[in-house]
Give the backbone structure.
Amino acid sequence: MTALTLKRKLAILSDAAKYDASCASSGTKTRDSMGGKGVGSTDGGMGICHAYAPDGRCISLLKILLTNFCVYDCLYCVNRVSSNTPRARFSVDEVIDLTLGFYRRNYIEGLFLSSGIIRSADYTMEEIVRVARTLREVHDFRGYIHLKVIPEASPRLVEAAGLYADRLSINIELPKDESLAALAPEKDAAGIRKAMGAVRLSEAASKEKGRKARPPKFAPAGQSTQMIVGADAAADGAILKRAEGLYGAYGLRRVYYSGFSPIPDAASRLPVRRPPLIREHRLYQADWLMRFYGFARAEIAGEDEDLDLAIDPKLAWALRNRGDFPVDVNTAERERLLRVPGLGVKAVGRILEVRRFKRLEMADIGRLSRNVGKLKPFLVAADWSPGRLTDQADLRAKVEPQQLDLF
Amino acid sequence: MPVVRLAHETDFDGWRAAARSLRQAGVAPHHVVWTVDGSADLFSPPPPCGEGSGVGVTVGCAEATPLRPTLSRQGGEGFRVPRPFVDLAGQAILHRSDERFDLLYRLLWRLQDKPELMHILSDADVARAHGFARDVHRAAHKMKAFVRFRLAKDDEGEVYVAWFEPAHRVTEATAPFFVKRFANMRFSILTPDVCVHWDLKALAATPGADPADAPREDALEDYWKTYYASIFNPARLKVAAMRKEMPKRYWRNLPEAALIPELIAQAEARTSDMVRAAPTEPGRRVVRAAVRNSRDAPWEGQAPTSLEEIAAGVDHCRRCDLWRDATQGVPGEGPPRARLLFVGEQPGDQEDLAGRPFVGPAGQVFDRALAAAGVPRAETWVTNAVKHFKHELTGKRRIHRTPNAGEVAACRWWLDAERRIIRPRVIVALGATAGLAVFGKATSIKDNRGRALQLPDQAQAVVTYHPSFLLRLPDEKAKAEAYEAFVEDLKLAWTLAA
């Protein structure tokens, strides 16, 4: 291990980190480096993706593991103890130097630090916290920090992590407790949920009003989690039900769905095949429908059902519920417009504004939405009515995309 | 035809002054020609100021004729336009399209007859201007993302220098972002349009530069490229998605982009190798862990003999299905020799997160009433009839649902164990569910509260309201009466337990 150069360590420990889908740098409070001694700013709203890899994923943070040595043996994980993957370990200073060096060159928004479990959960968590604390306190770093919480670590360390991090995450890993028990023997689904509950309570406590001494900010960008899709047999409905429950119980900002991807030196019990990218995409769309479009999970997919891969879940819902259509773009309330295939949250907002001043025609809608073809069978405008189109038996063939939009 | 010559490409103030005069003078948009000094309209050399128009409005040209007094008479002190228009114009003017001045003046002109125009986002001109503003916003965002500094040294020390080619003229507008981010770091961003420099005190702008003016290399770039190549997952190739967000026009100034062709070319082979590679045998550890798991997992069978066993067992309990949607089993708490044992219904949202009973809103009412009755909670055992949180989701909120008789019966196993181990003198059932759990049958609160009831195991029982019932009573008078009765019942229980 002494022979490893820093560059080689970086290669190993970023390769080991890439199966975590999250790279968001959004949703934290606004701050900057004016009046400080270091660098860093966050704008509160959307994050910044500094590059995109050819896998289409955003590169916003320096996403690395402190070490990929791990005592756990989670079958789906490239870093499990039984894998023959090359191992490395960063020193705290090395992580800090890379983070600051990258940040000053404007390569990144900040750091996303995770780690394999070495020695014990507390020892590992302590090391993670030490990096964040040094960045904040010694270097006055004001960029974004996302820390992975080791669920088995003591609450004191989770609390400390929340003081330095913008976001915390604990991966639920698999949609069913039974799958986790089967594939990740050392992990405990109940322990993961408890840790999420603890983070939720700390968040709430730091926002509590009316306390005399204002408690310090705790993870202002909240917490997120990740579920691996396709490593077990869970249906999409079960995955979404788990997500729905997590959003409700722990106020998660995001649930990430990560299609199980082939890894070097994979375990024999898992399906080593191309990652289900389209399925993953449909799950994200369904997730969006639950969070921003007022859909309940049960409307999108029953617990044992899978999503339709050929069309998006909103269109699929509309085709199943044609009785609710067409919707009159000039009179319908917001909730109903949001359910029209092809109309997004922004387009609906614009429609509502314009319609205070004029009756919308199809040409207007064409300038407010990019999907006129898709929405025509479902919408009535001043100069357009779909007539019998809405109820035609072959409507699906007419609105279905010619080919799948991902490969 | 009036020709307006603006001082430079992003001369918003010049455009605004000219547009104001022109509109007051009643010059229709299709009569105006907008040019920028220096950029020059190649086909028609700028006519002398005022030529070809009775109005003679020119701005920014060397021989500018002062605006004639007739103009100000016409429009008085000017006119008002909606704020969104001014904001939109300020953005759209940074667009590289030659149309922008004309488009914005046309909008200004049309606002006279149609003051609500800016709200009609589907209007062709409004939509186009918003399209420009969106392009500009995106260009600024991409500048924040894609500027790559290289470290250089000059007489004053370290300075970070970047060469960047923005899609639109956003450099000066975006510079403050970099100042805030790098307030304590000297930097320069060089672009073909304009360069901006931060010296730790002030932001300065100089004319556009040449790529050769920026440093050619930086020692850390190799590390960055290593990171870029390693974070890429070849099994998920999605080139179109990448190019949509990182358009090719930016690639030549992104050091990491040089790797893209090779990463794409190798992706297929790397993935096939991983898919084809023979799976490794599960290690001995996996086997051992599986054995250990199958031995420990189904925690069932013998009744617990200590409170610690109960706490551990409750958390892993699968006697009913409530554990699936709950965070954790919430065991009772208190001193093991408590004389008084309180039984609530089930944990609520807060109790589920914290893993402790009666810490949420109902817990606060409970604490208040205990204090009023003079009962020290720390000397009592507080637990619930059902140890997992039963709820349903309404939107993103978890709404309490009353546990059914089957769930109460399944969980009674734990309560009975608590009673057996603690052997309290008095058990207080808080609410109907607790009554069911304590007595094993439905027990009316109204008919039984306020007196001691005998239990078969020699303990006495008191039934009273559940604290959350007090929270829910809509009528203030009824609420006060019920609270008083509740406190009385607590006092009674404490006296019986003494």
Summary: The mean pLDDT of chain B is 88. Chain B has 18 helices and 14 strands. The two ends of chain B are 103 Å apart (CA to CA).
